[in-house]
Amino acid sequence: MRLVLPLLTLAILALAAVSLLAGPVWLSPATVAAALADPQPSLARLLIVEVRLPRLVLSLMVGAILGLAGAVLQGLLRNPLAEPGLLGASSGASLGAVIAIYYGFAASAGLATPIFALVGALVAVGIAFALSRTGGTLSLILAGVAVSTLASAGVSLALNLAPNPFAAYEIVTWLMGSLADRSWDHVTLAAPFIALGATLLAFTARGLDALTLGERQAESLGVDVSRLRPLALIGTAAGVGARLMLRVGGKVGPMSGDPLDLEVEVLACRADAAQAGLVPGSRDPLGAAVALRVQGVDVVLNSIRQQVFSPDCFTELGIALKSKRLAVVKSTQHFRAGFDPLAASTVYADTPGSLRINLGELPYRHLRRPLWPMDGD
After folding, report:
1. Count of alpha carbons within 13 Å of 121, Cβ hemisphere only?
2. pLDDT at 35 over 70
3. What number of other Cβ atoms are within 10 A of residue 312's Cβ?
4. d(CA 225, CA 207)
5. Bridge partners of 355?
């Protein structure tokens, strides 16, 4: 793993060098070096300095801020599949640019499109943050998905109502993105926003390291999570200008197996879900909870590690167990009181993990023997 970063850096440098050589007119390394070293005007220098070099610099800047924004959001949301589009930044920027093109602002002012895109990204992220202000990370993701879907619908509407095919073509061309015909003016325009976004994101490094332990643990270490979240979101929107991918499982230990990367549909969410506890009249918190649908299967995830005691885990999120042929819960024995009245039969499944139905199958290595149940009576 230590060699990954140096190797990737070398690969980027090699590809950057090749990009200066490649094109409709291929140039030799000696020609490129001479053109960069000699300030005298020449065709080769014009091609390198005014065409290929700004394109290279802009691609490196955009790639760097996209990678940085993605890494920050993955740390903030604790989701390895997170990226700026998850919180609506990309869709908001697209909608802003489409508005500039659709209403003619782009034709009257060259800076209109990027400015509208930036404003759109900031507004989209701001709405997502406002909607999830009283919730946690899960609420932020769901709000971002909602905002992203709404912005994407606006883009689709603009394409369908485009006054002529040329306007639609211009919109699609912008949405697809291109580094063709980029100049130093584009580099100068993008650099301040990318630098601003990168600077804001850099300030989140310490907080994101602590956040890997969880929000409560991060707060106990002195991290202001309420300040960290908007800082990361603004930095992402400034730099980058429903259904979602989600990774679940595989967090307890190596015996639990690998995590699953799933495309899920969000059905419902609650910031303060709870279930009936083992003590009569008590309520055990489940934390933020969400109901998802994965290939026709309804799944409930919650943020507080807890066994399932009661059907409340499902019903509080709108899942009616009576309409289901099969319900699977993660629990040892405590679920029986709540689920037996609903179930025609109960089947125990012994799955890999840190606890098994047959304790003798656990790979203990440092216990004094003999010990029940490994060694019988």
Report:
1. 24
2. yes
3. 18
4. 8
5. none
Instruction: Please state, in angstroms and rounded to a whole number, the distance separating the CA atoms of residues 85 and 161.
Output: 24
CA 367 vs CA 356, 360, 370, 375: distances in Å: 17, 12, 9, 12
SS (H, E, C) the chain: CCCHHHHHHHHHHHHHHHHHHCCCCCCCHHHHHHHHHCCCCCHHHHHHHHHHHHHHHHHHHHHHHHHHHHHHHHHHHCCCCCCHHHHCHHHHHHHHHHHHHHCCHHHHCCCHHHHHHHHHHHHHHHHHHHHCCCCCHHHHHHHHHHHHHHHHHHHHHHHHCCCCHHHHHHHHHHHHCCCCCCCHHHHHHHHHHHHHHHHHHHCCHHHHHHHCCCHHHHHHCCCCHHHHHHHHHHHHHHHHCCEEEEEECCCCCHHHCCCEEEEEEEEEEEEEEEEECCCCCCEEEEEEEEEEEECCEEEEEECCCCCCCCCHHHHCCCCCHHHCCCCCCCCCCCCHHHHCCCCCCCCCCCCCCCCCCCHHHCCCCCCCCCCCCCCCC
**CATH fold of the domain at 32-241:** ABC transporter involved in vitamin B12 uptake, BtuC (1.10.3470)
Q: What would the two tokens of residue 117 be? A: 């895109």
Q: CA neighbours within 13 Å on the CB side: how many for 115?
A: 7
- For residues 91 and 151, the answer to whether their CB atoms sit within 8 Å is yes
- Cα distance between residue 205 and residue 211, in whole Å: 10
Contact 150, 94 (CB under 8 A): no
Domains of the chain: which residue ranges?
32-241, 248-361
Q: How far is CA 65 from CA 39, 112, 188, in A?
A: 31, 21, 15
Quick check: 298 and 317 in contact, CB under 8 A? no
pLDDT of res. 174: 74
Sheet with 260-276, side-by-side order of all strands: 243-248, 260-276, 283-294, 297-302
Amino acid type, 169? Y
Residue-wise pLDDT tens digits, 276-318: 887 888 888 887 788 888 878 888 888 777 888 888 888 888 8
pLDDT score at 75: 73
The whole-model pTM stands at 0.54
Q: What count of other Cβ atoms lies within 10 Å of the Cβ of residue 94?
A: 25
Q: Would you say the C-alpha torsion 194, 199, 205, 207 has a positive or negative sign? A: negative
